[in-house]
Design goal:
This protein is an alpha+beta fold and 537 residues long. Helix content is 34%, strand content 19%. Helix 12 runs parallel beside helix 14, helix 13 crosses helix 14 and helix 14 runs antiparallel to helix 16. One of its GO terms (cellular component) is MLL3/4 complex.
Amino acid sequence: MTLMGNMNHATYFIFFCFFLSLHLHIHPFCFCDRGANIKSKFRESYLLPAFSVKPILSTETPIPREKLNPPTPSIYLESKRDAFSPVLLQFCTDPKNAVTVIRGLAGSLRLNLGLFSTKSLVEANSEHAVEVRTQVQQPADENWNHSGSAQTWPCESSRSHTTIAKYAQYQASSFQESLQVDIVTMSASVGSEINSISRLTGKTIGKIIKFGTNIDLSDPKRWKLQLQELLKLPAFMRVSSSANMLSHVGQTILGMNTVQLYMKVPGSRTPGHQENNNFCSVNINIGPGDCEWFAVHEQYWKAISDLCEKHTVDYLTGSWWPVLEDLYRSNIPVYRFIQRPGDLVWINAGTVHWVQAVGWCNNIAWNVGPLNAYQYQLALERFEWNEFKKVKSIVPMIHVSWNVARTIKITDPNTFKMIKHCLLQSIKHIQILRDQLVSAGKKISYQSRVKDEPAYYCNECDVEVFNLLFVTSENSSRKTYVVHCEDCAREQSPSLSGVVVLEQYRISELMNTYDNFTLRMSLQRSRLPLSQLLTDI
């Protein structure tokens, strides 16, 4: 009893795991004799069981048709003080608000969005690479198949590459064409006639357009002025901040913890999606034209995924544009709104959305990971769903969770509980796997991490590999090595011969991090009487 009483939580837990490994008849997983093949694998969720901070939204009760287009939450900022008010952060990150349009942001913060105009971009770096998506121009609420006989969900486009200078030329010439009076007049006079004919014949008339997407603005030397301008934003919206989980990844994730630019002509489409690992996103319209947005609360993502499957397109990896009538028939409310130049759109965690340019415009965007329970839960849920669907999680959530635990003091009890549980599950996974390897006679070599070393993913299945790396030599002469997860390593070599197992953290290091990760009481809680604090804890 004295021994147990002196143990901290992590030490006790490891002792408990070891105890179970010695008593196979009471352990729910199969441990084998030394030297034998492992017959089963420990699998347990990193999510806290029977605990959720998601809002309770009824998806069963039929919603009247007139309420299937709810008003979009929006805020108009009149001053810099408004922008830095904690109320804005609370409103944007409220789990009930799928999306927030923040109008007047550029004016209130005196943002020089001209730095992101096509002219400025050409002057700054004309030969910079641009990914081009060739698409068919269609009305924002329509998506016709190739024959024009029916509306459909797949939204295909072909990919090519160009430079900022060349796309700028295309963007400008497209705009000039639109200004030709005879074309404008003709379109106005016969547009309705063409539309009615196309509906009758089942064919649509859409020209081919090019969308300049995924333009990387991460280089701080090339884009110094642009990136400095974004430091005027409130901390929770910035590309990097201490309270942003994506600032604790320890590596660059292009377009997530770096800025990306989009150059558009009317009809340019960003198909339906949730952000990588359900992270929040920030999108600013540079102008001069508008963008039209469609957004659906995270609560309905599975229903939309089922509709994708019905229309033979993969929800996670495919390109799709929802047919609005299909959503309405499925009792799914859709936010629909216009983003004007200078407007910032905040996409909350897990929100499903798709966007189409109304005019000629540029947009800048990036992701943020507010350290709140809703964001963390959704990120971890998608991390596990991705593993189940064999899709790579762009954000290495186990790696991030440990980094957050080492560097951040959490004041929210729910966020703390979830991260603490994830760490405990991580230790459990590592300890049990480690014991299995040792009992099978497999050597484990310690190799501590070095500064700026990235998170690792399995070379075959893309699952995150944390701490215990299964490494094989890809090219012995060049000394290049490949990391695998345990499953894929055993597929190549069931006995793990030719596989080196590296351990990047000693269990004692992880246990210390776990024990030192404690809930920090906020100023409000610390003012409570001691008796009240003890009751709450």
